[in-house]
Amino acid sequence: MERMRADSALTQALRSRWDAEATAFVFPWGHMISSLEYVSRITGLRIYGRPVSGYTYPCYHDLAQRLLELLVERSSSLVPRVPLQESLGLFDVGKVAGESEDEHLDRLVLVSRRELASEPGAQADLDLRRFLVLFLGRLLFATRGDTVHCRFLPLLEDLSEVGGYAWGAAFLAHQFNNLGASERQTSTSGFFPFLQVWAYLHLPALGRGDLTRPGLVPIAHRWDSRRDSRNLGDQLERLQEAIDSYPYLDSAVEFPVRDRYHRPGRSFRGLHDTTDWRERAKEQIGNWERRGKAVKSDATTDDAYLQAYALKYGGKVYKSARHQVDVAGEVASLRALLYSAVQDREAAQRQTAELGGSPSLLEAQLAGAVLRAEEAQRHLEERERDLRLTTEHAMDPQGERDQLQGEVHTTRSERDQLRIRAEAAEAQVAEATKELAALWVQRSPGD
């Protein structure tokens, strides 16, 4: 692919909308997620094959000496970056005065080619391992900082096997892991062009990419990052507003809750013991080798999904300044709660009136209706508390504050009405329960 500029504003805007629990981006119109298919189409990386797994060691000194002919300290698992770059001919990687980006890149390629072996053999294998360690550690699976880890080195011993690993699947897992890192981080480490091109394809109205080479593959080869002369803060604010007001898509993409696996904490790096990750992650690897398993969603319709989405997120999906207190979103969430409770109540009442179903089923339906009504009441109280705290801490100018108070006053009136309706729903559910109990008394023991 061609050289691509990093779009920090775009990656920050996307990262702020990542829900680590759902492993998906949360937008006003629903969940969206980058998939293995797009890893393959955008990067060309292999998404099928052997899992990228193996051993990690507390010391890589002997392995690095044998496979890279580079010195790694016995107390470290990091490859010294400067000697690694110099072994590839990259002695002076900085730009010289008056040198353009393209001229800089051409010079580095020319110098590197002079240093690398041109014929197959032991020296070419050594050069390739050095390059792959740098490529994997500093580009594809980059982490924050300027270090190059040795953890991929055992997989590079037999170079004929390297192409058989599912590097694309490991790359996507690495992306998810970085997106789910501490909220204090504002940038995303790793191979940034993937996330940028994914946004160019799925959110074209944001206007952050230029399709300069259509038809080329992989897809990342087609795009350039569009220049934006505004400062980072202004860019980020405009992007958040654009996403908040983005035209709703034809259908929301649901991402059901995934299987939960026990995983080590982020501080674990396997530095003190030799770790066999094929055994430690045996369940995940077994699932991968079986090509995963089908996951059935609880939401049977688009409406059911959107109701559940509004219930979970409410107005919290909005990130721009003008949506800090999103009254419409909060009210939509409350209405979804009440609507679900009322639906359950009406269905239970119909079943009770007909009394044609299983008694145990009627009991379960009524119990579910009562629980949903109680849940609606509890969430109404939580929303009221959240709105009150948000309003108390608002730092808007006086004019905007007055407008906000008016909106909150209107919301309180609507909320009061919703609460009354929810209480009425509870009362009707209780009445239906009494009716069912009376019917049970009237039934003969043989019924």
TrEMBL record:
Signal peptide: none annotated. Residues 389-417 are annotated as: Disordered. Residues 5-245 form the Aminotransferase-like plant mobile domain. It comes from the Eukaryota. GO terms for biological process: meristem maintenance. Pfam families: PMD. PANTHER family: PROTEIN MAIN-LIKE 2, PROTEIN MAINTENANCE OF MERISTEMS-LIKE. This is Aminotransferase-like plant mobile domain-containing protein. It comes from Colocasia esculenta.
